[in-house]
Structure prediction request, 420 residues.
Amino acid sequence: MKSLTRYLTMNLPSKMAFENITPQVTEAVRASGVQEGLALVNSMHITASVFINDDERGLHHDFGKWLEALAPFNPDPTHYHHNRTGEDNADAHLKRQIMGREVVVAITKGKLDFGPWEQIFYGEFDGFRQKRVLIKVIGE
Amino acid sequence: MKSLTRYLTMNLPSKMAFENITPQVTEAVRASGVQEGLALVNSMHITASVFINDDERGLHHDFGKWLEALAPFNPDPTHYHHNRTGEDNADAHLKRQIMGREVVVAITKGKLDFGPWEQIFYGEFDGFRQKRVLIKVIGE
Amino acid sequence: MKSLTRYLTMNLPSKMAFENITPQVTEAVRASGVQEGLALVNSMHITASVFINDDERGLHHDFGKWLEALAPFNPDPTHYHHNRTGEDNADAHLKRQIMGREVVVAITKGKLDFGPWEQIFYGEFDGFRQKRVLIKVIGE
Prediction:
């Protein structure tokens, strides 16, 4: 069994943002030499997501507005108890649960086995700081 | 390491619907000969889901009503910016995030290692068109 | 390829609760002898979740309040059709979709490859009964 581990460093200059990391995952799969296997891609931080959806600017706007309605930012510690710790990012922990922590993608004949529109995104919900994404490839 | 790749073709005759695909995944695991390993099952399209829950008609009704309340269909491009592209399926991209893209299931002694009620579903949120599901089995 | 299968028995004494199961997963990874691979951890029941987030009491309070707002408990069978089966736990099936069924975690140099705050939780949404969690480790 072959395996490869890569860490990406993210540093998005806004509270909420989405970045396409498909090129970095594609490169990690190529470097692994794995022909048949799985690629796990996950956020290593709990106020961020990795997910697969469409690389379309309007949709990302919609994700942002929708997540803000479902889990609004509110630093008031009487609203979210988590913000009694001195943090103001409780909403980011909730948003991340909707969008997910990780994706697992099949590798077939040495490539990410994707449908026509699948792209991998890092979703940031508490930005302006450095975070990491893990890529783990296993297979043969 | 053994591996097997299968593609299922789905073509559901309604905007939103849920179909039990456990038999197809069970058959793929059997065909793989894998005794101990993992099965990844994912939608290859970004307006559909693969998820595990109960095969109960009333619950599927509840899922539909609940998802429609959380992410309502609205073709108006002033509501969802994604619909400025000429699409009207922004709501389907949001619904799929709640229900998820994929499941990873353990294979133990040659079988899907399931709890008493676990069943695998394809969830369609923008139907009336052909889509695909990927099954990837790895293990020994 | 090495593999290990473990089942945890959960029995939480409340309708909704979150329990940190990271120590049990850490021990399973150690026992497997796997140095490079993947650990799948999933609820075997469809009214419970396994997810990764912060071990902070205030945040767990926020999760509970938020999930109750998004998918309220309501035993009335005219509200949730699932409750026409004699069950009263339709809300628990919905809550579990938001929080997810499973996590897949990388194993690097024999350890769970975690970011600074990642902890694995069992999320119960229909407690007062015995349920199981599956841990499957594969790798080399």
Q: What stands out?
A: Chain B has a mean pLDDT of 98. The beta strands of chain B are 2-10, 17-20, 37-43, 48-53, 102-108, 111-112, 119-124, 131-139. The longest strand of chain B covers residues 2-10. The two ends of chain B are 5 Å apart (CA to CA).
